[in-house]
Design a protein that fits this description.
With 511 residues, the chain is α/β, with parallel strands linked by helices. The chain folds into 3 domains: 248 residues, Aldehyde Dehydrogenase, Chain A, domain 1 (3-Layer(aba) Sandwich); 183 residues, Aldehyde Dehydrogenase, Chain A, domain 2 (3-Layer(aba) Sandwich); 47 residues, no CATH class. 43% of the residues lie in helices and 20% in strands. The protein has 17 helices and 21 strands. Helix 8 links the parallel strand 9 and strand 10. Nicotinamide-adenine-dinucleotide binds next to helix 7 and helix 8. The site of nicotinamide-adenine-dinucleotide has 29 residues, from helix 7 and helix 8.
Length: 511
């Protein structure tokens, strides 16, 4: 992590809280120049054949994966990610991401040819061609600082765009390492990096970009959306959440406990899709809590649960726990900072009043409140009783029933007997509802928002004029009425054909 002091990013180790170096911020005044450079590079790039672009992007993937160990080392040093987690959630997934997009991109960017009625539109060809948007601004958080930017950079580049990438101020070293690989593997200025905080992010939104892809907090997303609206720039917002896990009475408890344990505590709970609330059927509640607490106590601080990103995050998490405890919640394990760096232990709470911050607001830390329910309707209502809607997971042996329960929760991703792992999949849509944002990253729906669908109309009919051009005569109305009658469900074919033909003849003869 780092903090900004006088245009400098002071890099800190979250495991100890000690400064470990510095990086310069990009001067705000330089941001428009970087966007302009990216635009020039992007224009040349978009004209290259797709096969060329694929080769270059394939090379970028190879270059990144070849530096997997370095990426993992920086993730550990800068964010405090346990290495196993850094490999699986950021590097392995990145390899899969490149493979997915390189596999599907030719089909996805294929122009769409319209089938036209030759009577109405003789000699005409209409196709919709996906074109590059231009410059995509990418404003990123720190919690998955390698994989999250690549989730957009890969399809954006393949679609012919340039990208200006602003890493989080708390993940500047990861950003710098990515920038180094981009410089070696890509044409100059095709992916430009801007280092700094909200000031640089705001300058980027205002610098004439064609799209903003923002991932971060709800407050940051709202500020970016309002700013982008002033410049009439479309944006996609991937924001926070308070995702629920619902454990049904028939759940396989061993799996539910292990899955929810990981869902709540991986990345120290600093995942937009972390399980932040567990709702457990009353029949299995006591056993579930007992087993979950036993397993949470076994998680090692540092090795299994890394540190929080900074002091402010640590203070926020602990304040939420303290408020809940003051209001009657029971701490079943954890519950206080370890005193070492920004570490907080895996914490399980029960008996939490549902109007406490820890039940309602994003915690973004390794704390799981668990509550009991009696009916599925009650569990669904509790899961939906949230301003957020990113994911839900439902755990039950009867998969069809569990899925039916999951689909009643208003959110972007529904898991049955699993959680939190599909975000990095290139082919799976990822996007929240309500305060969790709008727009999608991942999948063909994300690609659709990274291109402009240009309609191209070519007319080879060679006639003097179209039937619908001037002059407007009674024959035009007769012809149109006939065509509607012919196409209308339940219309009279005879009347339709008669009117269409007489109108047509009238047009040919007298205009
Ligand atoms: P943040 O909002 O503080 O910052 C995110 C990025 O936005 C940073 O690069 C920051 O410099 C920039 N920024 C902040 N305010 C800005 C402004 N007004 N104008 C322009 N740029 C601005 O978020 P964070 O603390 O880095 O990330 C944590 C949050 O991200 C959590 O809420 C988490 O749930 C969310 N998140 C969501 C997803 C998802 O896919 N939905 C994924 C990861 C993280």
């Amino acid at each position: 992590m780092s903090r900004i002091e006088a245009e400098t990013l002071v890099l800190l180790d979250p495991r100890t809280g000690t400064p470990v170096g510095e990086l310069p911020c990009t001067p705000v005044g330089e941001v428009p120049l970087r966007v302009a450079a990216a635009r020039v590079a992007g224009e040349a790039w978009s004209k290259r054949p797709l096969e060329d672009r694929m080769e270059v992007v394939r090379g970028l993937g190879t270059a990144l994966l070849a530096r997997g160990k370095e990426l993992v080392a920086v993730l550990e040093a800068e964010i405090g990610k346990p290495p196993g987690e850094a490999w699986t959630s950021e590097v392995v997934t990145m390899g899969e991401l490149f493979a997915h997009w390189l596999e599907v991109i030719e089909d996805e960017l294929e122009p769409v040819q319209l089938e036209l009625n030759p009577v109405n539109y003789p000699g005409k060809r209409v196709e919709v061609v996906p074109e590059a948007l231009g410059v995509v601004a990418l404003i990123m958080p720190w919690n998955y600082p390698i994989h999250l930017p690549m989730r957009t950079i890969v399809p954006a580049l393949l679609a012919g765009n340039a990208v200006v990438f602003k890493p989080s101020e708390h993940a500047a070293r990861c950003g710098a390492l990515l920038a180094e690989v981009f410089a070696a593997a890509l044409p100059a200025d095709l992916v430009v990096t801007v280092q700094g905080g909200p000031a640089q992010g705001a300058a980027l939104v205002a610098a004439g970009v064609d799209k903003v892809v923002f991932t971060g907090s709800v407050a940051g997303g709202k500020a970016v959306a309002a700013h982008a609206a002033q410049h009439l720039v479309p944006c996609a917002l991937e924001l926070g959440s308070k995702d629920a896990a619902i454990v049904l009475a028939d759940a396989k408890l061993d799996r539910a406990v292990e899955g929810i344990l990981w869902g709540a505590f991986h990345n120290a709970g600093q995942d937009c899709a972390s399980v932040e609330r567990a709702l457990v059927h009353e029949k299995v509640y006591d056993t579930f809590v007992e087993r979950l607490v036993a397993r949470a106590k076994e998680l090692r601080v540092g090795a299994d649960v890394g540190p929080l990103i900074n002091e402010a995050a640590l203070a926020k998490v602990h304040a939420q726990v303290e408020e809940a405890v003051a209001r009657g919640a029971k701490v079943r394990c954890g519950g206080a900072p370890t005193g070492q760096g920004y570490h907080y232990p895996a914490t399980v709470l029960t008996d939490v009043p549902t109007d406490c911050a820890i039940w309602r607001e994003e915690t973004f830390g390794p704390v799981l409140p668990v509550a009991k329910f009696s009916t599925e309707a009650e569990a669904v209502a509790a899961a939906n009783d949230s301003p957020y809607g990113l994911c839900v997971s439902v755990w039950g042996k009867d998969v069809a029933k569990a899925q039916a329960v999951a689909l009643q929760v208003r959110c972007g991703v529904a898991y049955v007997n699993n959680c939190c792992f599909s975000g990095p999949m290139g082919g799976a849509a990822w996007g929240g509802r309500k305060q969790s944002g709008y727009g999608v990253t991942g999948s063909r729906w994300a690609l659709a928002a990274l291109v402009h669908p240009r309609t191209v109309v070519v007319d080879r009919s060679g006639g003097k004029k179209e039937l619908w051009w001037y002059p407007y005569t009674p024959a035009l109305s007769t012809m149109a009425e006939g065509l509607v009658e012919l196409g209308r469900v339940g219309g009279s074919r005879l009347t339709g054909a008669r009117n269409a033909l007489s109108g047509l003849l009238g047009r040919w003869k007298n205009g």
